[in-house]
Amino acid sequence: MFMNRSNPAVEVMILRKNIKGINQRILVRGKKKKRYIHFDNAASTPALVPVLNDMSRFLEWYSGVHRGTGYKSMVSSRVYDDCHQVIGRFVNADPDRDSIIMVNNTTEGINKLSYRLHLKPSDVVMTTDMEHHSNDLPWRGKATVVYVKVDKDGVLDIEHAASIFRKNYPRVKLLTVCGASNVTGHVNNVHLLAEMAHEYGARIMVDGAQLVPHRSFDMKSHSDPRHIDFIAFSGHKIFTPFGSGALIGPREVFTQNPPDYTGGGTVKIVMKKKVYWSDPPDSDEPGSPNVTGTYALARTLTYLSRLGMDKLQEHEEGLTSYLLEQIGRIPGVELYGSTDRVGVVTFNIKGLPHALVGAVLCYEAGIGTRTGCFCAQNYVRHLLGLKENHEHLKLYDQNRNDKIPGMVRLSLAGYNTREEVDYFLQWLKDIVQNKYEFKQRYKFFIEQGSFAPVDFTGGSLVDKVYKRCMKGSVM
Questions:
Q1: Which of 122, 337, 340, 356 is the most exposed place for a label (fewest CB within 10 A)?
Q2: For residues 203-214, average pLDDT
Q3: Domain assignment of residue 44, yes or no
Q4: Which domain holds residue 13?
Q5: Can you point out the beta strands (E) in 117-212?
Q6: Are residues 167 and 198 in the same domain?
Q7: Which of 31, 30, 34 is nearest to 366 (CA)?
Q8: What does the pLDDT look like over 20-64, one tens digit per residue?
Q9: Structure letter (DSSP) for residue 218
Q10: What is the pLDDT of residues 425-465, one digit of tens each?
Q11: Does the residue 46 lie in any domain?
Q12: DSSP 8-state class, residue 75
């Protein structure tokens, strides 16, 4: 099944066949049913059927891990510990020098690192103007945060990064940067940035949430000046449900001070006035760990490795290039960003609120996208050419997503197809050509903070599916 092939379409079809819910049908305007198209992969990807099947078999042996003397506990403990190594291998972490710490998601991993580095206010942390809030806010208040600029297209200014290093040497302790933007999909040359950081005696942390799911990633040897010191990524963006993610970095960092969260599982011996902490990763995985989430992530990464990340990347890049080329031919559509990117495309239609465009794609076409600022408000404002406006806070408080600046984001994954992209492009052209009609057909509902067709009676479908899910019988 996983033989080497020259045609990436084969791997794409294998992956697509194994996507849970790939043929799910939904009710759209006009009381029609259409197959749902998921173009919101940058937020979360669907799950894989083979992994869910593996999970079902593992759950027969699932138990609490570590220190249990029963067979199930011993099996689960061994599986859980081995899964750490599987996850580390996916990004070529060093099993002898790196600690693979399981967290819930990238956000938790970055927050954990922000505490574990024990920074001082006089220390400098460099981040960038293109970051997700999760790679900006955790550093504030723990050190002096300096931002690397981006150009008009949102591309990182490498020369500005170098000037910050020079100006603040030797106070810069960390450069933290996204591997790929969740707004423009731009891919940063993190190994070049790593070499620069190490030259000035700093470490580098890569937010891998949008990069690891789309491209093969190599942390490189600790002896390589291009080595990535820390990386964090999430399972839910790489076909893994059950809320797992990983923070990977030098073991020495996680043995220098007490962990940020303490409790069961983090200690060797507890005395009245002295605590002997466990070795990493146990010291940074307090309480009962997410065994099922860790297992699911490890099995997913194994599946993708065997299928071939390079083949999926080749397909996705071709699909993204085609999408960008075709959108660029549609008058009235403004694209954001530049060239080298993962499958993330953001745009606006002149004369239409981004939230309305997203609603039309949902209720008319059955396409799932995302609108707004994507937890990267400073970056989106920059791309839109807007300045900070404190008056926008009133709009947020009033739930007026129809007036808040933002974009429409379409995000691809390795299982999406040319046919799905063509279907989206047809609808995009229709929306552009019939803007006035769609404005009349839709109304903004403040209570739910979104647009919906004035004549749509299928809104109750969400309620129906919700009730079935909660009762345990989905459909």
A1: 122
A2: 98
A3: no
A4: 8-35+308-471
A5: 124-128, 144-148, 172-178, 203-207
A6: yes
A7: 34
A8: 999 999 989 888 899 999 999 999 999 999 999 999 999 999 999
A9: -
A10: 999 999 999 999 999 999 999 988 899 999 876 556 677 77
A11: no
A12: H
Indicate the Cα dihedral angle 193, 196, 200, 204, nearest 10°. Answer: 20
CB 304 within 8 A of CB 238: yes
Predicted local distance difference test score (pLDDT) of residue 339: 77
Do both 239 and 216 map to the same domain? yes
pLDDT of residue 214: 97
User: Which residues are paired to 386 by β-bridges?
Assistant: none
- Cβ-based neighbours of 221, under 8 Å, separated by 6 or more: 94, 227
Predicted local confidence at residue 468, as pLDDT: 76
User: What CATH number corresponds to the domain at position 254?
Assistant: 3.40.640.10
Q: How far apart are the first and last CA of the chain?
A: 31
* Contacts of 400 by beta carbon, 8 Å cutoff, 6+ apart: 444, 446, 449
**Alpha helices, DSSP H, located in 385-444:** 392-397, 418-433, 435-441
CA 119 to centroid of chain Cα atoms: 26
Where residue 2 falls among pLDDT bands split at 50, 70, 90? very low
Q: Which residues pair with 127 in a beta bridge?
A: 147
Give 245's DSSP letter: E
pLDDT digits (tens, 9 = 90+) for 324-367: 999 999 999 999 998 789 999 999 999 999 999 999 999 999 99
* Measured distance CA(22)–CA(1) in Å, rounded: 20
Q: What gap in Å lies between CA 465 and CA 173, rounded to an integer?
A: 49
E-assigned strands of 2-71?
A: 25-28, 32-35, 37-38
Cα 38 vs. chain centroid, distance in angstroms? 15
| Cis? peptide before 405, omega within 30° of 0 | no
Alpha helices in 143-214 (DSSP H): 158-168, 190-199
What tokens were used for 180?
A: 């790929």
349 phi/psi in degrees, rounded to 5: -105, 125
For the segment 303-321, the average pLDDT, to the nearest whole number, is 96
Q: How far apart are CA 223 and CA 250, in angstroms?
A: 13
- Least reliable range by pLDDT among 4-13, 190-199, 287-296: 4-13
Q: State the Cα–Cα distance between residues 344 and 382, nearest whole angstrom.
A: 17
Report the number of distinct structural domains present in the chain: 2
Q: Residue 6: is its pLDDT beyond 60?
A: no
